[in-house]
Amino acid sequence: MPSSSKPLSEFLALDKKLSQTGTRFQITAGELILPANYTMNDVTVVVQQGVVSLHRNEGHVLYGILQSPSIFGLAAAANTIRNDYTLIAESDCRGFYLPSRETLKCLDRYQLWREAFYWMAWQTRMLEMRDMQLIGTNHYHQIRSTLLTMIDWDEEIRLRIGVLNYIQQRTRISRSVIAEVLAALRKGAYIEMKKGKLVSIARLPTHY
Strands 191-194 and 51-56, how do they pair? Predict the structure, then answer.
C-alpha cells in the first residue's frame, strides 16, 4: 500500500462500530460540521461523504481541504494538547460525530486499536508531507506545492475554491506575492485559470 494511500479497510472497520453510537449529520456546503455547543477537542468526527476544510482558529490557518472518507479526533480523549479547530463543509456532506470518550470505549470494546493506529499513522504521514511542502521552503515552492495539491481535487471542488484565497490561507504568503506568481505562471501557459479558479496545469517550473 503506497504511503499516501488512505487505509480504507481500517476506516470501514472503525466506521462500522463508531457509527453505532454516533449522531448523524447531513449538511450543505458552507455549514459548520459541528453544532455551536461542540468543539473539536471533545468529539470524534467521521465524514463518510463529501469534502471538508480544516481550520486552526488561532492565527486563522487553513490546514487543508480533505475529501472523504475522513476521521478527525480519533484520539481526542487521550490527547491533552488543546488547540481549537473548525471543520467546514466544502460540499454536501454526511457523516456522524460522537463524544471522544465514547470513541475510546469503542476502540477498547471491539479491539480496534490496530485500525486506529493505521489511520493515525496515515494522518501523521499527511502532516509530514504538508510540512515538507511549507516549512523551510521559499514562497514559490510553497505556491507550487499548493497548486499541485489543488489539481488533485475533484473538478467540482476546484471550480468552487479561489486559488489566491486558498494559497494565502494555507501559506500566509502575502496576496500581492501570490498574485504576481500566478500571473507569471498564467503568462507562461504553465497553468490555466478561469474566474480565479484552477482549471489545469501543463507543468510547473522547479524554480521561479
Answer: unpaired
Q: For residue 207, which phi and psi values (nearest 5 degrees)?
A: -125, 150
One-letter identity of residue 76: A
Q: Report helix, strand or coil for 109.
A: helix
Query: Measured between alpha carbons, how far is 48 from 15 in angstroms, rounded to an integer?
Result: 8
How far apart are the C-alpha atoms of 101 and 160, rounded to whole Å?
36
- CA quadruple 124, 133, 147, 161: dihedral positive or negative? positive
- The answer to whether 49 and 137 have CB atoms below 8 angstroms apart is no
* Cα gap 203→196, rounded to integer Å: 18
How far the first Cα of the chain sits from its last, in Å, is 34
Domains and CATH numbers, the chain: 8-126 (2.60.120.10), 136-201 (1.10.10)
Per-residue cell: 100: 471522544
β pairing state of 23-27 and 70-72: unpaired
pTM: 0.85
Nearest Cα to 142, choosing from 85, 181, 95, 185? 181
3 state SS of 55: strand
Measure the CA–CA gap between 139 and 6, rounded to whole angstroms: 29
- What's the pLDDT at 50? 94
64 pairs with which residues across the strands?
54
Residues 129-154: what's their mean pLDDT?
92
What would the grid cell of residue 58 be? 488561532
